[in-house]
Amino acid sequence: MEFTEEIAAAFPVGNKIPALLKQALQLLEAHGCVRKRRDGVRYITLHPEPDYSDMCTIAFYTPDAADTALWTGSDDPEVNARLTIFLRTGGDGSWAGLWRDNAGQQKVVHLGSGSGSLMLCILTESIEDLLRLLAIGYNELCWPEHFDRTPREVQADEYGDNSDPPSPTLLRIHVTQTLGLHIPERASEIVQRTESMDAMKSDDPFWNWLKHVRRE
Predict the structure, then answer these.
(1) Is the N end or the C end of the chain the one with fewer CB atoms within 10 Å?
(2) What is the rounded CA–CA span in Å between residue 182 and residue 199?
(3) Angle subtended at Cα 47 by Cα 41 and Cα 52, rounded to the nearest 5 degrees
(4) Averaged over 100-116, what is the pLDDT?
(5) At 18, is the secondary structure helix, strand, or coil?
(6) Is residue 27 within 8 Å of 131, Cβ to Cβ?
(7) Among positive and negative, which fits the CA dihedral 161, 162, 163, 166?
(8) How far apart, in whole angstroms, are the C-alpha atoms of residue 176 and residue 181?
(9) Domain containing 14: what range?
(10) Which among 149, 151, 84 is positioned nearest to 111, based on CA atoms?
(11) Alpha-carbon distances, residue 215 vs 70, 99, 209 (angstroms)
């Protein structure tokens, strides 16, 4: 799996790609989910069907250390090695990444664009929960106000048409049959608390870490 190996190799040594994430990416790549933008940048979508290429917002990209440095505002390699950004979550420019917390545990975190989504917090406590979240079928994961509604309800309420791609069947089968995990109907069953980057204070560990390193 050439592209998956490229993505995995870009994760820093101290924050390696989790085996379950790599396995899922290999599956998607094997089924033709690798796409290429007009500028040549490749990504992995959740949908093997080419007809949905332009509709799909959620996608996996090769991590770039420069993107991490922009977020942390730090040139300290030890700081930047703790955050790896690899998953686009919204058309507004929001992303998710893998963060190694103070105890050395990997968490999936969300980094809102600031011009659209303001969500800045731990998104899921594990890769298993990230895969479950992705398998629900939202076209964007950057809007916490959508999390109490199903993807179908979001589509009907927000857009009133059928422009979004269908549920990611390939990933859903992998999550339920291969991993033996339950996929809920709504994101709020997995993500029970979020935080805004504009909050004055927060109990969220990632929010506090990022605010701290940016002040140093």
Answers:
(1) C
(2) 33
(3) 80
(4) 97
(5) coil
(6) no
(7) positive
(8) 5
(9) 2-215
(10) 84
(11) 13, 18, 10
Closest CA to 175 of 139, 126, 111, 141: 126
Per the confidence metrics, is the pTM higher than 0.85? yes
Report how far residue 139's alpha carbon sits from residue 83's, in angstroms, rounded to the nearest whole number: 24
Quote the CA–CA distance of 96 and 89 in Å, as a whole number: 6
Question: Helix or strand or coil: residue 83?
Answer: strand
Looking at the structure of the chain, the number of domains it has is: 1
Residue 31, token pair as written in the block: 């089924």
Query: Over the range 54-69, which residues count as b (16 or more CB within 10 Å of their CB) and which as e?
Result: eebbbbbbbbeeebbb
Task: Report residue 34: phi and psi, to 5°.
Answer: -80, 130
**What's residue 49's pLDDT?**
79
User: Are 192 and 144 in contact, with CB atoms under 8 Å apart?
Assistant: no
What is the per-residue pLDDT across 150-190, written as a single tens digit (0 to 9) for each?
999 998 887 766 666 778 999 999 999 999 999 999 999 99
Rg (CA), the chain: 17
The whole-number average pLDDT for the span 14-26 is 97
Length, in residues, of the chain:
216
Cβ atoms of 134 and 52 within 8 Å: the answer is no
Strand extents, DSSP E, 76-129: 83-88, 95-100, 106-111, 120-124
